[in-house]
Write a structure and sequence with these properties.
The protein has 18 helices and 16 strands. The protein is elongated, with a radius of gyration of 24 Å. Among the domains are: about 10-170, Rossmann fold (3-Layer(aba) Sandwich); about 230-300, N-(1-d-carboxylethyl)-l-norvaline Dehydrogenase, domain 2. Helices cover about 40% and strands about 15% of the residues. It has helices at about 10, 30-40, 50-60, 70-80, 90-95, 115-130, 145-160, 180-185, 200-210, 220-250, 255-265, 285-290, 300-325, 355-360, 375-380, 405, 410-415, 430-435; strands at about 20-25, 45, 85, 100, 105, 115, 135, 165-170, 190-195, 215-220, 335-340, 365-370, 385, 395-400, 420-425, 440-445. Helix 14 links the parallel strand 11 (about 335-340) and strand 12. Bound molecules: nicotinamide-adenine-dinucleotide. Nicotinamide-adenine-dinucleotide binds near residues 25, 89, 139 and 176. Nicotinamide-adenine-dinucleotide binds near residues 26, 49 and 283.
Length: about 450
């Protein structure tokens, strides 16, 4: 059923099963979204260019296996017929009333946002667009992408008029891998919706109120919604850079930064985040560049990026200092990096601090080995690193993610395997005293020693 011209009363009484939603991009974020809408009885057509993904979903098999609860959800909603997948984006657009885009916007090698995947999707949607349709962008995007890029392209391709024939909204996803289903349903925060006009905003409100149990917050237009998402993420990049600066300053004074941060944060006006080995993933370190594209001289954002990126060099400095205490030059040391994902619990390496540290150490140390419970030996070798299962021959262990398995390491056993007893902990997960008692030299981010 086409929604754009429905009255408010009719809209609020509509049965979800009368609405067909096409969702473009069935990846880590798009597939959980498709599953949740289907679970709430909307008819969902999932669209992806990857045929293997589409075939797998149509067989009821979840291709994003690491996402909690997703396998049973996909099994269920494909069995009931509420979710079907296709590679035909034009046909999906023709047969759906609402089209949701949730593909990533990456940076190119000059850190400019690359809109090519998005434009490909918009072309297909535009070709099948009909009067009364609604198009929603969920992907995080630079300011004005929704109205100036998507809106203009849709009008040109379809010969239809925005805010007369169809509506357009930005409703940014604010969810995380591992908790995606619960996040879509409002575990952490309300849904932000911003339509190209009031009618579209109301439709977006109706839609997301069906799945987000917490709340739906409407903002004036899609551009405001874009900025809510981008600045919310940039806040974290800047705050982490602040925490890293605080740590480096405290270290010079011989003071533990964590003690300062924890005590300072007892004031409700103070919310300092955690220092660490850098910021990874395809969100926090990427979105500042969405702003820097237009606002290249933004001192705060540029500096924050530089500070967080330079933490890998600081980790190597800590390793060098620890090795010096054992009279081993860095160039002769065998290093084991524990953690190549950008954070614990995910199998994703985009802008991973562990990888940055490993690459920098490749030319500075004798050998760099890698282990991460999220990745198999083959995965690690495919990424170009040497896999290591045990601790033999190792002079220095560097922990870069807070994986559960790393928290449970039996250091008495490790002590019997390593060549030199050194641990650099960038995630505050070791018990320094216990390791010192075993004879380890330890260095930790967040502490003076
Ligand atoms: N992964 C995360 O933890 C995370 C967290 C928060 C936000 N996000 C954001 O969510 C959005 C989606 O990211 P993701 O992690 O799901 O990406 P992803 O890489 O896991 O999946 C993207 C999917 O889109 C498909 N695709 C690419 N081009 C397409 C096209 N032209 N037509 C149809 N399908 C196409 C790919 O085949 C893939 O299956 C992005 O805006 C991202 O920044 C991701």
């Amino acid at each position: 059923m086409k929604l754009y011209n429905l009255s408010r009363v009719k809209l609020n009484n509509i049965n979800p099963a009368d609405i067909t939603i096409s969702i473009y991009g069935l990846g880590k974020m798009g597939l959980p979204l498709a599953g949740v809408f289907a679970k709430h009885n909307f008819k969902v057509i999932g669209v992806d260019i990857n045929k293997k993904t589409v075939d797998s979903i149509n067989k009821g098999i979840n291709p994003v296996i690491e996402e909690k609860g997703l396998s049973s959800l996909i099994r269920k909603v494909t069995k009931t017929g509420f979710l079907k997948a296709t590679t035909d984006g034009v046909e999906a657009s023709k047969t759906s009333d609402i089209k949701i885009i949730i593909i990533p916007i990456y940076l190119d090698d000059k850190n400019n946002p690359d809109l090519s995947l998005l434009k490909d999707v918009v072309k297909k949607i535009g070709t099948g667009l009909q009067k009364g349709d609604i198009v929603i962008l969920e992907s995080t995007a630079p300011a004005n992408t929704t109205l100036q890029v998507i809106g203009k392209m849709l009008e040109k391709i379809s010969n239809l008029k925005l805010n007369k024939d169809f509506g357009l909204a930005h409703c940014p996803e604010r969810i995380s891998s591992q908790t995606a289903i619960k996040d879509i349903e409002g575990r952490l925060c309300p849904k932000i919706v911003g339509g190209s006009d009031l009618k579209t905003t109301r439709i977006a409100e109706y839609l997301y109120k069906k799945i987000n149990k917490r709340d739906v917050i409407s903002v004036q237009n899609p551009t405001v919604a874009e900025l809510v998402k981008i600045w919310g993420e940039v806040y974290r990049d800047v705050n982490i850079a602040f925490a890293n600066t605080l740590y480096l300053s405290c270290k010079e004074l011989g003071v533990d930064a964590f003690e300062v941060i924890n005590a300072a944060n007892t004031n409700p006006y103070c919310r300092i985040l955690t220092p660490g080995p850098g910021v990874g993933g395809h969100c926090i370190p990427v979105y500042p560049y969405f702003i820097l594209k237009e606002n290249t001289n933004n001192l705060l954002l540029n500096l924050s990026r530089q500070i967080n990126d330079s933490m890998s060099t600081h980790v190597i400095y800590l390793a060098k200092e620890a090795l010096k205490e054992k009279n081993i030059p860095l160039k002769d040391a065998n290093i084991l990096i524990l953690g190549i994902a950008y954070r614990a619990g995910v199998k994703e390496v985009r802008k991973s601090p562990g990888i940055k540290i490993a690459l920098e150490l490749n030319s500075l140390s004798k050998t760099v080995y890698v282990n991460d419970p999220q990745f198999s030996k083959e995965d690690i070798e495919k990424l170009g690193f040497k896999y290591k299962e045990d601790f033999t021959k190792i002079d220095c262990i560097i922990i870069t993610t807070g994986e559960k398995a790393f928290k449970k390491i039996n250091w008495s056993m490790v002590k019997t395997q390593v060549k030199t007893k050194i641990v650099i902990d960038t995630k505050n997960i070791i018990n320094k005293k216990a390791l010192s008692n075993l004879g380890f030299v330890t260095k930790r981010i967040g502490y003076a020693k």
